């Protein structure tokens, strides 16, 4: 069968290459062939698609391509991976995943996705004079949430989960090395703009203006300093736990990401991420997780050293927690006007636009849960809370001290990372509806619940078995 398909596939590729060579420039034709070969490979091996998504989503999250519809490369790969999963499922080549009733977090997340139909329809009706497509934004958000179900399908074995973590950390390491190197050389957050242009980032003029406005804070492929802070809050605990329990290059990878990520966090000056990581580390220290107390002291010492060596950081930190800080004042205004926005849109504004709605006097809201209310109404926020409660019931640690080992490193690191991301949601809204960031958050949730189900199998719901008595012939008593 494979030999019989080999010749037609080779002929088809040859014809496509010839057409692209005639219609496109040599560089674009080469990129097209490489992309087509990658797509065919992912269709055969869906796990490779998930690993490629994890690497590219952390390295160049908002790099775009235009195939009739403009999309980020990361989202295109995630959608292609789903196509590969469906194709391989049709061919019966994928192992069966546990039924949905045995996956409480996934089940509640599915209810949230189904409910989102209502605010989507409401937003399409009440939000007018907006050119963006609510349908496209809604489908992109659903695609991001579906990362949980992809994990259940493709990360069946612990080795596959470790491969995903390696892919996440490799992409993060490349992003950190590039961002820090550019910032150290240019001493400006806008110094990374030419690289983002090369990566085909959209709305480049507006992006460059934003980077120049925050030039004292490190720029990165995540575009906004607070966004890279949120990603560091999500991934640094995983990198630390992975590095501390591995050996060789894997240990260097994990600890390298943890150290560079801490430096990037200071250079980006994301106070929400700083506070959330500090609180999670304190929680880990109270649970007697090894090395966390030392890590807090080392982090404080490195912070002092970096502040002394970089005067602009001194100025930033001097005002970062001040009530006179401009971003603090904006947040107070957002909270003050939020009840008026909820009264104006009690069922949410849907997916046509991010808050605030153009033409209204309202502001957005820098809070994960309140942003859910803004977009999907109170019911949508309550469903998100229900998902997090279900997740915590599955993933929570047992009582008593937590011992960090190679066996539980992925579970503990991802648990701490998700907690840090949720705490950072008190200060920023990125993990609610921001593309790619949301997908990485739910990818981490998917990884975490799989590890929790392996480590704590007794928490899984038990099957309710109904015993049927064999029917006896008439007149015969059992």
From TrEMBL:
One GO CC term on file: membrane
InterPro entries for this protein: O-antigen_ligase-rel_domated, WaaL-like
Keywords noted in UniProt: Ligase, Membrane, Transmembrane, Transmembrane helix
Location(s) in or outside the cell: Membrane
Principal location: membrane
Ligase is among the record's keywords: yes
Transmembrane segments: 6-24, 108-126, 138-156, 163-184, 190-207, 227-245, 251-283, 295-313, 368-389, 409-427, 433-450
Recorded GO MF terms: ligase activity
Residue ranges of domain O-antigen ligase-related in the record: 258-385
Membrane topology summary: Multi-pass membrane protein
Identification of the protein by name: Membrane protein
